[in-house]
Amino acid sequence: MHHRYDVLVVGAGGAGLMAALYAAKGNVSVACITKLYPTRSHTGAAQGGVGAALGNVAEDSWEWHMFDTIKGGDYLTDQDAAEVFSKEIIETVYELEHMGLPFSREENGTIAQRKFGGHTREFGKAAVERSCYAKDRTGHMILQTLYQQNVKEGTTFFNEFHVTDLLIEDGRCTGVVAYELATGEIHTFHAKAVILAAGGYGRVFKITSNALTLTGDLMSIYYRKGLPLEDMEFYQFHPTGLSKLGILVTEGIRGEGGILRNDSHERFMERYAPTIKDLAPRDIVARSMVKEIREGRGVGPDKDAIYIDLTHLPRETVEGKLAEITDLARTYLGLDPLKDMVLVQPTAHYAMGGIPTDLNGLCLSDGAGGVVEGLYAAGEQACVSLHGANRLGTNSLGDLIVFGKRAGIAAAAYARATDYAEMPERAERETVHLLDTLRGGSGKENVAAIRRDLQESMMQNVGIFRNGPDMAKQVEIIKELKERYRGVKVVDPAKRYNGDLIDAVELGFLLDCAEAMAASAVNRTESRGAHEREDYTTRDDVNWLKHTMAYRDMNNPGNVIIGYKPVTLHGFTRSFEPKARVY
Fold first, then answer.
1. Which of 121, 137, 254, 282 is catalytic?
2. So where are the chain's domains?
3. CA torsion sign, 270 to 275 to 280 to 284?
4. What is the CATH number of domain 239-346?
5. What would the CATH number be for the domain defined by 429-564?
6. What pTM was computed for the model?
7. N or C: which end of the chain has fewer CB within 10 A?
């Protein structure tokens, strides 16, 4: 089946819905393809808020927000992206408010704001209230609001469609190919512009806050075209996921006064970050927790968790501002945060790297400024390098709406100014080959077993603390797993809702993302942000103040070619001396 739209958006989370909305406002026809019904997208799991320097509680400025973003990113953040973001997020939050997003309110009626890790006033002097929130359901509220606005603007949705190929010829994207879950049919979509916004790839790890659908599909497809993935070595572990489960516990829980404690009930973050303690950036808090656990001060049956203590907070805070977390702790752990300390552990959470883009979301084909015409990306799938080596809490939702909006506006402008290019002949051939190969495999290997081995080995070898030998071993493990993957066979013959087939396709995507990530990580011989090496403990700005660009070796699949892209610097150039870790 064939379809044609001026602008096609892949993904219906916050970035995809924002991009679709602003493309639709540009007087072009817009369609959105999504694995899930839009309001089930993973943005709905984001709890804490959107960082914006509104100054509703205390004095604040976009320059302070920009500084925190750059410093939090350990100076790998592109500073033009941080400036654009810190300025435009203020207006964009007010736009969401005017669309009807039900933000929590201060007593004077303004949008409520609370403290969040890494957000400071006066360039690091003290914590500041910057997170704009809707209780602890901010992502859910964003999804609902943006979906309603898209329905109003006439966006067409193709729900439960899995994109399997990007159509790129002569440096221009002309559409996508997708598999419809309900029918088993293959669809081709012809477009003037395509926006990729399908989320991250957290399912490469065993313990993750990511939904089951976050398998890096479009990152993998982009990579398979010989195009680069940027900064894949930088993956953030959120300090607080529910123990064993990975279900996210918002950083807002610490913004409201929650305290991390070890087995002796010590507030240990006072030793690691004396100024802002539990509100330090996520990479610092996660490493501090792991250090406590490694040194025998963990809690729980396996001594591999840490307490988060809310017992000193008022009931109205715990059951009001933190209602979702309270319910999750009671439901999944049998603990009542009003009287029990809750067990949490660092959890794979967010990819700082992804498909490289410029400030308007246009996809880059190399580190020298080359582009893929008509192809845009936004959200966690993209890397405009706002987050650098470590993302600040609340900057993810801000990234979605600021750069999703920018991509939508740019794609619509491009679509209005250009004609449809010809699609390749037999556009669906790669997808047909992929699905036929999986259905006709030897059957010697099991998808679930390979996925388990991938997730466990990635958690062990490319987790919070890393070293060269373990990561080099992981590179070889991934090669072995990819070879095993060649022996997978889908045994379910069903045409409609064939979950076995989808699992097999997604495993291939995960293996590609893990391949690029492990190769990029072992190559970067320093510690920076979320990339903490035990054999290279110092940040090395002389040799490593640059972005990694990982390319698939098209002549020798299984190997990764590493290139680089310069970091954009202006405004904040202090603190570039090599930095020794204090852990």
1. 282
2. 239-346, 429-564
3. negative
4. 3.90.700.10
5. 1.20.58.100
6. 0.92
7. N
